[in-house]
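retry 2 of 3: previous attempt timed out while embedding calcium ion. Reduced batch size to 1 and resubmitted. Inputs unchanged:
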Amino acid sequence: MSLRSTLVPLALSVSLLAGPVLQAAESAAPAPVEKPAPAREKASAQAPAAQNKEAAPAKAAEKAKSAPRVKNYALRPDVLDYLAKVSKEEKIPLDWLKKEVASARYSPLTQKYSTPKPNANRKTTPERNFALYKRNLLTEERIADGVDFVARNLATLERLEKDLGVDRHVVAAVIGIESIYGKNMGRFRVIDALMTLSFDYTRRATYYKKELAAYLAYCHREGLPVTAVRGSFAGAIGLGQFMPTSLFAYGKDGNGDGHVDIVECEADGAASVANFLLEHGWKRGEKPLYPAEANARIFKATASGGIKAHTTVGALLKAGVKPKGGWKLPDGDAALLVDLPWILADDKKGVDYFVGTPSFSAILHYNRSYFYAAAVSMLADEIRAREAAIEKARDPAQKPAEPAQPKAPEAAKSRS
Ligand SMILES: [Ca+2]
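retry 2 succeeded.
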């Protein structure tokens, strides 16, 4: 199970060079996980329902027009050249590759969802609004199901926390935001999506050919038929919606059966997310975000806006950042300043600031958006707070005397 690290950081390092975090996140920034900048979160949420339309007669003409002429990918010279290269580089028998790829099919929906909307006009890009983003992602479903996810996987999550130091609630929150704890992992055959994006809709073929190679290597290593795995229209897989290069490099066996299955196995999904965060700098014992007072001038003066913890807590304090809520971190700790602008319905505007730690930066390697990483961090806090509230309700000693009330939500539920 050697990690083919050459495959991994390429897409990531390209994405790191792509400019300011949040602007890049709005375009199709190829972070290791191809999800969920706000726009695409929406698109992928619609995808499963829209799949049924594939067979609709109204779409037939359009489908026929855009579908490639040679249906069997294994008969196409461009594909055969590519497979020969993959066979050599990944040390996979060419016959296996040809046989497997023969069952791939062009996916018109993958092409459709990957095509930028013609009316996506830069001038009309809405202002960044964390209030809206947070409202869409930090739903009651994600909080309540997060409590269940943690309870269901407590032994695994505790072990990961002990061994890797990664906060169990953050692991749950990443999975909650990426796939609603497995409810929304995508229904596209990954091989179809990646073949389509590598050979027929080739706007980002270089990127997808690397993902496809990693996917083929993963299936070969795991002994899986390439048609067995389903994912998003862009090939993101499983509970944590890993792109194949990340799955191959950071995927981790969480239940000890010798396989990495992040679609069916929650322990593997959790272990893989924790491992990804650790490998990208997660720091044991620190929260991702600490609230602070700052302003646009300080943000600029400290050269803030990237995804790395590029400065220190001490330097931020010296530049005028003030801790809110009485937290204290060592001056020498690596840090970054995080801005979250918001707009309310009555057009009231503001910006919340936070000191981010290397753990925040680790989440940013998952998705380059401050909004995304902050939503993960805040969802983790909400799940933790809900657990505490449930615990408190269960323990009568900690509760002010209210003898007529049911003790716990479960008690209330079972009566109805
Ligand atoms: Ca496993």
